[in-house]
User: Which sequence fits this backbone?
């Protein structure tokens, strides 16, 4: 199960390709997650920043920063056909994921922001979730997530999407969280719709999918109190 992601070479740039879907992700709390503090430098009247991360109370998994030891594990399950077949993202080597390692990541207003979903008992990475295409001036970002097939069907994707979206609106101050799903990615569409995302329309030939143009559904979750 995997959502749409930015292309590896574009991952730290605002406006890069990639979206979210399924196939689908922070503070002290939530199973020993260490605090990360970033600043979303938005418009002067609407600064966006966070000093705590959302917590997961799912009985099976927790959230934590991505570490160097996670990269080979992550690459291995992302390389499974069941994970990548309904998305546009398929890294060709573990090195293409290394910039997600929290120790190496850029922490700028438009950086990709991603955490590991880890087994609560062993600490092993079983998924990831976060933002890319961050637009501070518009108070928006795009959601992306993925899960190892070993943990599909246990409500993890929906739980994490709900947690991240609530945190994005309530703590970070984002007005819009969007996500895209390849038109064959029915698992992702179901997760997004279950989590309150609205389908906005079909984007024709929106992104290349292993050499062929793919059509993607655009979804959004907009803060209603604004």
Assistant:
């Amino acid at each position: 199960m995997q959502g749409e992601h930015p292309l590896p070479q574009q991952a730290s740039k605002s406006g890069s390709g990639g979206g979210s879907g399924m196939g689908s992700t922070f503070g002290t709390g939530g199973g020993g997650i260490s605090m990360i503090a970033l600043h979303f430098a938005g418009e002067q009247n609407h600064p966006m920043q966070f000093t705590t991360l959302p917590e997961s109370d799912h009985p099976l998994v927790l959230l934590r920063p991505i570490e160097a030891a996670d990269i080979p594990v992550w690459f291995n399950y992302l390389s499974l056909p069941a994970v990548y077949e309904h998305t546009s993202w398929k890294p060709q080597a573990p090195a293409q994921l290394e910039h997600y390692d929290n120790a190496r990541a850029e922490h700028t207003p438009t950086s990709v922001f991603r955490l590991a979903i880890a087994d609560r008992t062993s600490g092993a990475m079983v998924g990831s979730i976060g933002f890319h295409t961050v637009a501070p001036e518009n108070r928006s970002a795009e959601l992306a997530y993925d899960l190892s097939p070993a943990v599909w069907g246990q409500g993890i994707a929906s739980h994490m999407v709900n947690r991240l979206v609530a945190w994005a609106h309530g703590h970070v101050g984002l007005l819009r969280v969007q996500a895209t799903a390849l038109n064959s990615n029915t698992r992702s569409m179901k997760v997004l719709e279950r989590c309150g995302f609205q389908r906005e329309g079909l984007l024709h030939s929106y992104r290349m999918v292993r050499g062929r143009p793919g059509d993607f559904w655009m979804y959004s979750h907009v803060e209603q109190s604004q």
Remarks:
- Residues 8-222 form a domain with the Aminopeptidase fold (CATH 3.40.630.30).
- The chain has one domain: 8-222.
- Residues 156-172 form the longest helix (17 residues).
